[in-house]
From TrEMBL, chain A:
Residues 5-228 form the ABC transporter domain. Belongs to the ABC transporter superfamily. It comes from the Bacteria. Signal peptide: none annotated. It comes from Micromonospora avicenniae. Pfam families: ABC_tran. One of its GO terms (molecular function) is ATPase-coupled transmembrane transporter activity. SMART domains: AAA. This is Biotin transport system ATP-binding protein. InterPro entries: AAA+_ATPase, ABC_transporter-like_ATP-bd, ABC_transporter-like_CS, ABC_transpr_CbiO/EcfA_su, ECF_ABC_transporter_ATP-bd, P-loop_NTPase. PANTHER family: ENERGY-COUPLING FACTOR TRANSPORTER ATP-BINDING PROTEIN ECFA1 (PTHR43553:SF24), HEAVY METAL TRANSPORTER (PTHR43553). One of its GO terms (cellular component) is ATP-binding cassette (ABC) transporter complex. Keywords: ATP-binding, Nucleotide-binding, Transport.
From TrEMBL, chain B:
This is Biotin transport system permease protein. It comes from Micromonospora avicenniae. GO terms for cellular component: plasma membrane. The chain crosses the membrane at residues 36-56, 68-101, 133-152. It is found in: Membrane. It is a multi-pass membrane protein.
Amino acid sequence: MTSEIHFENVSVEFSGREVLRDLSLDLDERRIAVIGSNGSGKSTFARMLNGLVTPTRGEVRVHGVDPARQPKEIRRRVGFVFSNPDAQIIMPTVAEDVAFSLRGRGLTRTEVQERVTAALDRFGLGEHADAPAQTLSGGQKQLLALCAVLIREPGLVVADEPTAYLDASNSRRIARFLLDEMPQQLVLVTHDPRLAARCDIAVRFEAGILVDRGDPAAVIARYEEEQL
Amino acid sequence: MYRPGGSVLHRTPAGPKLLTVMALALAISLVPASPWLLAGAIALVIGCYLLTGLGLRELGRQLRDLRWLILVMLVPQALFLSLPTAAVNITRVVVVVLLAALVTLTTRTEDLIDAIAKALGPLRRFGADPDRIALMLSMTITTVPVIAGFAAQVREAQRARGVPVQPLAFVVPLLVMALKHSDDLADALTARGVD
Ligand SMILES: Nc1ncnc2c1ncn2[C@@H]1O[C@H](COP(=O)(O)OP(=O)(O)O)[C@@H](O)[C@H]1O
Ligand SMILES: [Mg+2]
């Protein structure tokens, strides 16, 4: 039985330059923190989980699916939250943007509307349903992005520095949803040691190599020690 | 942008509404202008805005949004043509724009774009994909305020440095930001299952 997240001898090259080297890793924890310096390969790792990056060598399995070979399947099972709140909104209004996540499911208009309303209420966005999405605050936009991801009921949510553009109170709200409220498996790329500490396991990359994994507090402590 | 409401105009399906406005716009643009025609067109616009339940205040807002367009058109026309001719031309354009705005005010973008996609349906035979065209239209509407925001940022940054605003120094950073944005947006589209 393979793990929910399974990497075996995976390398990634961009135009001949190796940015991730010979990664072998199995993860079944609910909340997985990914830490490491800038340019260490965290985003490359995260983006492989939903097929945005294709490995040059090696084998990847995510929830039983090969992301590179089964793009349709993987996008049903894996939701992705990016850092930039502005660049995730596709449709003009809040409700339309969430509804966009349900297209192609063969749902009736009423069914879509019901689900969208329920989801928006859950994220405290109900009163903004018909507002132009671009008029939301950064924090609300990020909640909208998360709402649009979760309404598809993925098995895994990947979040690449989802709080990077947010102030402290909005970061807390996003973190609460990701870490405490949603039941899905989570891969959280973050620079915030407090968020990483709330995960069940942390993995650390440096210069394209997996250098540490284990209890988040210990992994963070070793990381911070080295940075002094 | 859509303003929710329960008026007759809100309840009329997007397709017929769009067709009616297009027909009216065509008529107003092509029929030789007479004072009567213009007066009628203006009355029609006022009547329609009252009918939406959004009232004359909304009409005022729309007109205010058009003030620069009006000015840009008015100056050259008034200089090279006569003032009455300029006024007639501009009234026509403004009436048409206000009628078009009526459609967007009373129709959810989603419904509007569905209607457009349906109208483009016959193009399928020639290899066009109406759903993709519809998606592109929606994304354009979403992206316009973002790019406008970038433009404001660039201008502010230049003002803060006291640089006199040169066209090139304005366009280059704007282009860079827009390209980065479209890259990010493409990722988001892929991640949300559009291929
Ligand atoms: N699409 C790409 N093309 C070329 N190089 C890239 C691309 N994406 C990332 N890189 C490079 O790969 C390295 C790792 O990047 P990334 O995974 O984004 O790091 P992190 O998220 O940890 O900051 C960096 O040196 C970056 O410049
Ligand atoms: Mg990154």
